[in-house]
Design goal:
The complex is a heterodimer of chains A (226) and B (83). Chain A is of the alpha/beta class and 226 residues long. Chain A contains five helices and eleven strands. The mean pLDDT of chain A is 96. Chain B is elongated and about 50 Å long. Classes of the chains: A alpha/beta (226), B alpha+beta (83).
């Protein structure tokens, strides 16, 4: 049976169309989820895509974190549902407490929109098992509040437990602590990153097809666990 | 009814690039002597008398501020107070 991967749309979400396309390209069925949904429609995994949910009012992700669909999502993530947060989706998962840390304004105060090289630091999560450790991938970064920060203790813990999933290969253009571009939950099922793998699934429309691996990784995980 | 002010500031250890941009702009405008600027948020809440201090702390800590990166203070203003 085809795996069903939900893609949440909040008011102000931009990248749900590309996220759904990436899910289909990987071989799964993309199931649209609406911010006001009371349940997850029985999906096997969820992508929280990028954009400017609720206009980034208050803080990026702060309002979306309390949308009705987030209740069942947080509950399901607690029992091992694979969840991927991209850009604003990453910010939402941090606000929701599913991932550690927070995102602040870029160090240079400028919105950054360019392709960046990342290094896969952990190829054992639900979303990166299809990569090799230390593999380089080229994906777009496009954010104004993409600077990952956390307390030193939390950063040490993340590094010690191998929960840094992606790092910017050269110095983080947004000033992220320890060049961290993406992190995982303790069980490796919830992953968030600021750059956009869903925009890099086909050289015809992006800088590479390197981002597709996140979406194929989770399908492999779902097949193996079913 | 009462008025409550919640001030939210980036934690001391968090880089505040917006504050730095402001402090960098002041000398260009001819203002000297400002050593540091930290930029935060100021909320004014008009609340019913039924809202207690504990609830206000919860409001500030769950929605108005992100405890990972921000500190906050909650202040009840005196009657007819202005912020």
């Amino acid at each position: 049976m085809t795996a069903r991967v939900g893609v949440i749309t909040f008011p102000g979400t931009l990248d749900d169309v590309d996220a759904a396309r990436a899910v289909r390209r990987a071989g799964a069925e993309a199931v649209p989820l609406w911010h006001a949904d009371a349940d997850l429609h029985g999906v096997d995994a969820v992508v929280v895509p990028g954009g400017f949910s609720y206009g980034d009012y208050l803080r990026a992700g702060a309002i979306a974190r309390f949308a009705p669909v987030m209740g069942p999502l947080i509950e399901a993530a607690g029992t091992g549902l694979p969840v991927l947060g991209i850009c604003n989706g990453f910010q939402i998962l941090c606000e929701a407490g599913l991932l550690p840390g927070a995102m602040t304004r870029n160090a240079g105060l400028r919105f950054i929109c360019r392709d960046v090289w990342l290094r896969v630091s952990n190829a054992d999560t639900a979303w990166t098992s299809g990569y090799e450790t230390d593999q380089r991938i080229l994906v777009p970064l496009k954010s104004g509040e993409g600077r990952f920060v956390a307390e030193r203790r939390t950063l040490d813990e993340l590094e010690g437990e191998g929960r840094v999933v992606f790092r910017y290969e050269s110095a983080a253009p947004n000033g992220s602590s320890r060049d961290i571009a993406g992190v995982a939950s303790a069980n490796g099922r919830v992953v968030g990153l600021m750059p956009h793998p869903e925009h890099a699934i086909d050289p015809a429309t992006g800088p590479s097809a390197d981002g597709l691996g996140l979406f194929t990784s989770v399908l492999t995980q779902l097949v193996e666990s079913s | 009814m009462a008025r409550v002010v919640v001030n939210v500031m980036p934690k001391a250890e968090i880089l505040d690039p917006q504050g730095q941009a402001v402090v960098g702009a002041l000398p260009r405008l001819g203002f000297s002597g400002v050593r540091e600027v930290r930029q935060g948020k100021h909320f004014e809440l008009d609340i019913d008398d039924s809202v207690d201090d504990e609830t206000l702390e919860q409001i500030a800590g769950t929605l108005l501020a992100n405890p990972v990166i921000e500190d906050w203070s909650v202040t009840r203003l005196p009657e007819n107070g202005t912020a």
